[in-house]
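User: Teach me something about this protein's shape.
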Amino acid sequence: MTVTILDVEGNSQDLSAIVERREYILRARLYGDSKPEHTALSILVRVGALCNDAVLETEEDGQLSAIGDPTEGALMLAANQLGFDLDQLQAEWPRVAEVPFTSERKLMTTVHKMSPEVQSYDVPWRGAPYVVMTKGAIDSLLDVTSQVLVKNDFVPLDAKMRARIEKSNADYAGQGQRVLGVAFRIWEAPDLPEDLSTLESDLIFVGLTAMMDPPRPEVKFAVLTAKTAGIHPKMITGDHPLTAVQIAKDLEIVEGDCDEDGICLTGQELAKMSTEQLKERVYDVSVFARVAPEHKLKIVNALQSEGEIVAMTGDGVNDAPALKQADIGVAMGITGTDVSKQAADMILLDDNFTTIVAAVEQGRVIFDNIRKFIKYTLSSNTGEMFVMLVGPFLGMPLALLPLQILWVNLVTDGLPGLALAEEKGERNVMKRAPFHPNESVFSRGIGVEIIWIGILMGLISLGIGYFGWRQNPEGAWQTMVFTTMVLAQMGNALAIRSSRDFLWEIGIFSNRLMVFAVLSTFALQLMLVYVPFFQHIFKTQPLSLAELGICLIASAVLFSAVEIYKWFRYKRGQ
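Assistant: First, the predicted structure itself:
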């Protein structure tokens, strides 16, 4: 967040230009030797720095950074740029009381006692024991303002002056800038009132500060990625509606020259809406501006009542109810309060929206890999069941022995199955609709694929075994069934690494763990077939090169069938 414009006495000035000529305008200390026409400018910056809870610290590289609210930090950095000694300011105007900011008032007020040295400066409040300093939203501030500082004099806030200030506010907000107003009040009485909120009346308006917080370059791409993934980002902010809408357009949360009334609701409008009225509009509205914490909860409830799955971000104490109610509450790790973190389901360590989208993508990759593992293991089990159930109807003895089935389930399914967990995301992982929580893991074709791949695997294995058994019942036909089943699973593992892309498109070595698992399983299978010790345990017989070649061809047939299925289902017509 950076202050870009200071607007006083009807004049708008770029902060960068003021900094360049600050020796002329503000002099060294910006106090008594300032020219009268620039008094309002120095007061604007001074009040912004004093009515402030942020702290500046020096980084290792010598650069200053602000700790605290980004808006307040920007005001402190602007005062530093203009030559103010912030420590001296706070020493000369010590804070003695405060009315904290609330989302309802949209104002923050501090009371400062002036030292005798300060009272000698040429400022509008010299000689008074206290000065009240207030900053906040323009519309809220003008409601408690009665005068305006113009050329070191106080003039009444009439309709014309108010309209000019409101127009400036709307112009800056329409540029996507956050606008704060600054005002003060001289308190002549020796004691402060018991109810400090009464100090927020009859204020003297000084000017406006416009701040720009350009989104990180990657955020726009993250928003577009989220939208293509079936996620509907909604902006909920305390900013002016024009500011919020412009930022939403810049980030393409809303598209084109949309009518503000159609895409934005304010907190005031939300408060007047019934639950049913909000339900009718909440899905189509993308921007909620000038909202209070209770409005966030109302928005979450309305979306959930329409069957939506809602993730809500927040950092304040008042955000806790909405974070708790949301399906996924996401608290800010840097700026978030302890209360918001306790209420949330997740904590965003870097406070970056892009990280949320990246987490969604990674979650989809994990879920995809779980589905691939299920498809891989259950298709193998289906093939085994087919062999065991159909074989007896053909008059064959048991085609697979119990220990062989155990080997297939533990080793053949296990090693490549674990390697599937290392698969990277598919190209379309963020270009498809999300899964509904009640949607079956076997949906979107997985169940059908398990059945036909398993049956094909069983047919191939049993077919090879049947012809071998007919030719030589005492031969190695049972070992061929066992080996074909194992090698067919290897072909299956390679083919289902991607549900859409061919193996050569994703790269056979893009998952080296899978290559290792397939080669290891193949080597272990050869060991069971050709090592006498294991032949005795697993009841296998050595296969000739021709017989082993038949098993490998059978594996290639299954692999090719799965790849052809992808072409028919996804590739044809592209």
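Now, about its shape. Residues 353-390 form the longest helix (38 residues). Residues 27-38 have pLDDT under 50 and may be disordered. If you'd like, I can walk through any region in more detail.
User: That's plenty for now, thanks!
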